Amino acid sequence: MADPSPPRIPQHLAVIMDGNGRWAQKRRRPRLLGHRAGANAANRCIDFCLARGINALTLYAFSSENWGRPDDEVNGLMKLFLQALESELASMIARGIRVRFIGERERFNDAIQERMRVAEERTQHLAKLNLNVAASYGGRGDVVHAAKKLATLVQSGDLRVDQIDESVFGRHVELADLPDPDLMIRTGGDQRISNFLLWQSAYTEFWFTDALWPDVDDKLLDQALSDYANRERRFGLTGEQARELTEQPA
Ligand code: FPP
Q1: Shortest CA distance to 236 belongs to which of 248, 245, 247?
Q2: Has residue 44 been placed in a domain?
Q3: What tens-digit pLDDT sequence spans the chain (250 residues)?
Q4: Structural domain tally of the chain?
Q5: 61: in domain
Q6: CATH number, domain at 17?
Q7: pTM for this entry
Q8: Among residues 43, 55, 66, 195, which one is catalytic?
């Protein structure tokens, strides 16, 4: 008999979009062409999330460490970000997508910062999909930033040190208003977190594939979802306890 329960869909998907450079090099084309193909793949992934009912998608577009890449690649990526911010906003609004940026936005040029601000402002009422773009983001920086905010609150007398626990701390990292990522996909063959959502991914399920990001399609993403649906998430409990928690009637 077929399983009557609906498949478990992640509420929040995080993606490390790796392999754009190799995708271009395989074709003897400049790396930037790979990033352009990567931007198209990101758009397909957004549509996939909308179609599957995933409520939040966080894409790792540019890490704090990526500033160290050769100047022409960084400049090319900046041009690509600006173009995408200009050309995609109307389509984001039409698709009901709320866009947010996480990371050190002050490191981007004024034009990009302004476009980020406009995109956030004009989509803040939308709720079909929460799209978070990590841009000049680093997980360690995120945690340090939260620690600084708490230190400031303690210094001003608005918070006592003994009040700081994981729940208070967690309210000061990025994406605090969203559930933590249920599933993190990394393409490109490497199996590491590369300073992505360190705090937020404490109990995230990881899924790795050798596929290069521009080659990712719905079939592959469905495979990730299907593997995820078959995993047992225990959150540090025994399997029996975890099953009791998830099987309780609503
Ligand atoms: C990693 O591949 C990818 C990046 C550093 C950039 C990601 C950017 C995009 C997908 C395009 C823009 C996205 C948006 C949301 C507008 P890599 O260059 O490290 O690839 P490699 O490991 O093959 O060299």
Answers
A1: 245
A2: yes
A3: 445 566 799 999 999 999 999 999 999 999 999 999 999 999 999 999 999 999 999 999 999 999 999 999 999 999 999 999 999 999 999 999 999 999 999 999 999 999 999 999 999 999 999 999 999 999 999 999 999 999 999 999 999 999 999 999 999 999 999 999 999 999 999 999 999 999 999 999 999 999 999 999 999 999 999 999 999 877 888 888 787 876 655 4
A4: 1
A5: yes
A6: 3.40.1180.10
A7: 0.93
A8: 66
Ligand 1 binding pocket (C-beta < 6 A) is 17-22, 35, 38-39, 42, 59, 61-62, 66, 80-81, 84, 133, 188
Which stretches within 174-236 are classed as H helix? 218-229
Show the domain range for 102.
12-247
| Strand ranges (E), 194-237 | 205-208
| Domain-located, residue 6 | no
* Residue 63 Cα to ligand 1 middle (Å): 10
In one letter, which amino acid is 39? A
Within-domain flag for 164: yes
Runs of H (alpha helix) within the chain: 20-26, 31-52, 71-94, 110-123, 139-155, 166-170, 218-229, 239-247
18 is catalytic: yes
How many residues does the structure list for the chain? 250
